């Protein structure tokens, strides 16, 4: 079933998004993510606790995401996005995509990496990438099971940042990934998912569900 989801207005997350997302197969992300507008992070994006997903987002079967996600508008995060949960990758997660930064990506903080970050694809920075702020990875981003990838999850993604991506806030990863809203949804994306409007996150986007990938 092909589906086109167009978000041409303002998408506020001030409530609870409940949807059960079950994928009974191979989950392929052959996604083109284009950021043509201005993506500003003016709030605090903190990773403080353990990423508990109390809603169930299970990928048990075949879930193909041949999705084109276009962000042509302004995506502002003026609220608090806290990730206090646990995110475990027990399977194979391949990034065979091209991650191109053609615009200006400014980080108004310090970006510290204490782990291993491997890129098997091509990561090209054609624009200006300035790290002026504080993007601290102080805590532990622990992956203890609750987003488990026990199958194969391939990300053949093209991420293009053609606009300006500014991080004016503090992006701290002190703990795990907390989800206080419950996201339970059954969604299969075989169509085009376009975000042409303004997607604003003005409130608190909290997730407390369980995101398990038990597929192939």
From TrEMBL:
SUPFAM superfamilies the UniProt entry points to: Trimeric LpxA-like enzymes
GO CC annotation terms, alphabetical: cornified envelope
Entry protein name: Uncharacterized protein LOC106513387 isoform X4
Protein species of origin: Austrofundulus limnaeus (Annual killifish)
Gene that specifies this protein: LOC106513387
């Amino acid at each position: 079933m092909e589906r086109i989801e167009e978000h041409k207005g303002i998408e506020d997350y001030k409530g609870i998004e409940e949807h059960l997302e079950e994928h009974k197969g191979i989950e392929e992300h052959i996604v083109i993510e284009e950021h043509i507008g201005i993506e500003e992070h003016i709030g605090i994006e903190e990773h403080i606790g353990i990423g508990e997903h109390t809603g169930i987002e299970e990928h048990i079967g075949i879930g193909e995401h041949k999705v084109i996600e276009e962000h042509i508008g302004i995506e502002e995060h003026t609220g608090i996005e806290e990730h206090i949960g646990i995110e475990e990758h027990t399977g194979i997660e391949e990034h065979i995509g091209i991650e191109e930064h053609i615009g200006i990506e400014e980080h108004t903080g310090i970006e510290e990496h204490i782990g291993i970050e491997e890129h098997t694809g091509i990561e090209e920075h054609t624009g200006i990438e300035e790290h002026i702020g504080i993007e601290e990875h102080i805590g532990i981003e622990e992956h203890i099971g609750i987003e488990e990838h026990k199958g194969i999850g391939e990300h053949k993604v093209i991420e293009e940042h053609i606009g300006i991506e500014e991080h004016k806030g503090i992006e701290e990863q002190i703990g795990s990934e907390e989800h206080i809203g419950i996201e339970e949804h059954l969604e299969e994306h075989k169509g085009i998912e376009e975000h042409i409007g303004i997607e604003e996150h003005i409130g608190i986007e909290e997730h407390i569900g369980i995101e398990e990938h038990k597929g192939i």
